[in-house]
Amino acid sequence: MKTAVLVFPGINRERDMARAIKLVSGHEPTMVWHAETALPAGTDLVVLPGGFSYGDYLRCGAIAARAPVMDAVRAYAAGGGLVLGVCNGFQILCESGLLPGVLMRNARLRFICRDVHLRVERSDTPFTRGYNAGQVIRVPVAHGEGNYTADAETLTRLEGEGRVLYRYCAADGSVGDVSNLNGAAASIAGIINDKGNVLGMMPHPENHVETIMGCTDGRGLFAGLFAHFDRAA
Amino acid sequence: MKARVTVTLKSGVLDPQGKAIEGALKSLGIEGVTSVRQGKVFDIEVAATDRVGVEAALKAAADRLLANTVVENYRVEVLG
User: Fold this and answer.
1) pLDDT at B80
2) What pTM was computed for the model?
3) Distance between the two ends of chain B, CA-based, in angstroms?
4) Shortest Cα distance from B40 to chain A (angstroms)?
5) pLDDT tens for residues B33-75?
6) Average pLDDT over residues A19-37
7) CA atoms within 13 A on the CB side of A60
8) What's the 3-state SS for chain A?
9) Cβ–Cβ contact A112 with B under 8 A
10) Dihedrals φ, ψ of B61, to 5°?
11) B20 contacts on A by Cβ (under 8 Å)
12) Which of A117, A204, A208, A228 is catalytic?
């Protein structure tokens, strides 16, 4: 089980992510600098953590998406390798073309930093098998640009192909304008690519993995991913 | 050679920043403002004299980095 956590200038959640991975999988991830042109041999999972790569200059994730290491990530994803992007990582995946759409400024313009509820839409993917379909989990968000937008055709395709894995919801699992904190299309919090091996999500599951954090709902995402590898191995 | 790339949001894309600026202009009492859309301007100097080539290079720059064509349009002007 080898995980590579990508590190871009300005990223600040890489250690939270590494800690969560170590805690749940027992394996220490490798930190990979953005200027690298290859991923470590035998990488099972690539993670793009949250933060503010390049200060969010130009557009969030735009400059990181053109970093040398992203060519290696594109090739890795094309070969079916699993890629997880959280928060700025999601923004980078959209900017790099690995996921469709874009993350715009929150509809109500505020930077939002608090716990939210997410509805897990499917449990039959490597990124959600640690949960039950329809399960409501509580994880934190911390972003100013999490308002997911895509053209109507893309949104229809995402819904039709079951590619929305996580959706903002109320504590009872209901979805609506009140629980859609940033104005995202269809309350989308996380999506996968068409091959099902690249997930991007705005909330931070890595920050709810220990009881000292007040909640362990985020563990399921990592536990599910690592269970996926155990089965494959 | 100087050139300018202007990036604007496509029509129909929600522009919360533009809306906030619109509200601020109204609260300043500036009359007649019906809508504000925010964009970006890049003033770029290029060491070349070939107008057509510069325009093509900057279009590539806009497609690859300066604009996200999912939600943005751009315009390239070679200013001479």
Assistant:
1) 79
2) 0.94
3) 5
4) 9
5) 999 999 999 999 999 889 999 999 999 999 999 999 999 999 9
6) 96
7) 25
8) CCEEEEECCCECCHHHHHHHHHHHHCCCCEEEECCCCCCCCCCCEEEECCECHHHHCCCCCCCHHHCHHHHHHHHHHHCCCEEEEECHHHHHHHHCCCCCCEEECCCCCCCEEEEEEEEECCCCCCCCCCCCCCCEEEEEEEECCCEEECCHHHHHHHHHCCCEEEEEECCCCCCCCCCCCCCCHHHEEEEECCCCCEEEECCCHHHCCEHHHCECCCHHHHHHHHHHHHHHC
9) no
10) -60, -40
11) 109
12) A204
Asked whether the CA dihedral A137, A208, A56, A198 is positive or negative, the reply is negative
Residue B10 contacts residue B68 (beta carbons within 8 Å): no
Nearest CA in chain A to B40: A58
**Cα separation, B73 vs A127, whole angstroms:** 34
ipTM, 2 decimals?
0.86
| Calculated CA dihedral for residues A53, A56, A62, A67, nearest 10 degrees | -30
Segment holding B22, helix H or strand E? helix B16-27
